[in-house]
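Good day; I would like, with your permission, to put a structural problem before you. A protein sequence and the structure tokens that stand for its backbone fold form the material at issue. Thank you for your consideration; the sequence and its tokens are set out here:
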Amino acid sequence: MKRLRNLGLSAALIALAGVAHANPGNRLGFNTSGLAQIAVSNPFIDKFKVSRGWITSCNYDWQNDKAIDPGCTKKTSFNTDESHKVKVDRFGWPMRLPTSGEAPIYTTISAIWDLGEFFTLGDYVVTYNGDADIKALGDIVVTNEQPGRIEFRLNSVKRKLRLHITRINPRNYIKNIRVIPKRFVNVASRQKFNPDYVNTIRPFNSIRFMPWQNTKDTTFTRWEQRTTPNHAFYNGNAGMPIETMVELSNLVNSDPWFSMPHLGDDTLMYRFAQTVKQKLKPGLKVYVENSNEIWNYMYPATHHATREGLKRWPRAYPKLNQGARNLKLALNYNALRTGQICDIWKRVFGNQKRRVVCVLSAYAGAPKMGEEALSCPLAGGGCHKKIDAYGVAPYFGDYIARIENRAQLRNWAKSGAQGMNNLFSEINRGNFIDDKIPGGAIPRAMKNRITPNVALAKKYGVKLVAYEGGQHLLRVDRPHVIYDEKIFELFSKANRDPRMIRSYQQYLNAWGRSGAGIMMHFNGISNIDNRNYFAMLERPENPNSAKYRALTNYLRGR
């Protein structure tokens, strides 16, 4: 901690780091925010790693309304959508730009950042190797510029920050670009992670890296496709480097939770496990899960599981309708594949296999799904014997936004402070919405999503854990899609409201009393707006939101 103090961190942040794992009886983790939000969560000192990747551009004469580069248009001048055509080395560094006679429309490329409201402003230093023409653009003032180095001051987030490359020498192409806040230049070579981010997440027992792994959308199949620490960007289809995720877990002394890619072959699983075993601190465990929510048809992994199940058991459940049959096939295949993945991991860890916690997950609101997966009749039965934990996502509050309650929500949204009072009264005490379960959102979550699953896990001799959890005011199931912006605004404001502390206290205490194991809050650090309000915190350098305070108080045992 001495080095962090020397970096000028406030006493409050340092004190916060001291709550790390203060009450081992109250175990909490969190899901990272997604790769699209990584510039907001700000985990790295080097901001180049979290830019959007290479964006291709062409030259257009706006004054005379005509193309300079062949094929360039007004619409495509800023982004020709040809990123896949950029000639890069195996780590993603651009080796050259197209010549005038080549097919691509683009003639220049840029690395671009989506600057959230709280993106770090101030002085930056850009360094790079190679021979190229590169300019920093945005709401900036360039203070120094020479080959291999640019210094600038970022004044605001009004315009996108970008590094624009107009020439590359193919014999000495540009690589090793770094974008470092000036205050961290002296420590960047020996410290990868933003100290503010490190201190903010330090209290938590575990980190679920599912969003950083791009689990929902990945086509990561073979080990050779992985992202390595030497890659230019960490936002590719294969997600974050394994080594980087393990390094962060070691630094904050938190168990990593990996959601293995659903298309990954056994060699990938083996090499992944090998890398984790070699690099993970001896005292830490590792949670291992097959993909994410293989019951939720929003995600490709569930469709894949259904197809694989159909190959293996083409005559199963002939009397069920197609939807119910497909789901049971997916659940059985997930149980089968989870067991196979667990076998690989535990074989790799050998006499340390107790450090591996294998998780099989299903939908919290339908314990029959968990029963099907844990018993896995199509896969030969007994799949629970190969796992250590049963995972659910026992969110609270989603019933409030059901379609039959929508008119009432619109009235609340129009009623200002009184409407917010009504919303929190329903969350904390109930009786505003007639759902035949008194007491509000927390008792409802207990009755429908926690108590039955605690019993199910006990029946099969495994521990109940929560792969996700927290508030879920928004309903995402198709019949209940919300279009009213005022309702979204009501929910986003509620997630910033201090009264959310009490709601979380009720919720976490109820979870703790149930006898269940660790809960992984969804999610970590991200922006909160009318479309995204699951984050516990909006910026790492100011850890003082209602949800974050409630979570860390719970970890302290308060």
Q: What stands out?
A: The domain at 2-37+194-556 is CATH 3.20.20.80 (TIM Barrel). The CA atoms of residues 183 and 228 lie 27 Å apart.
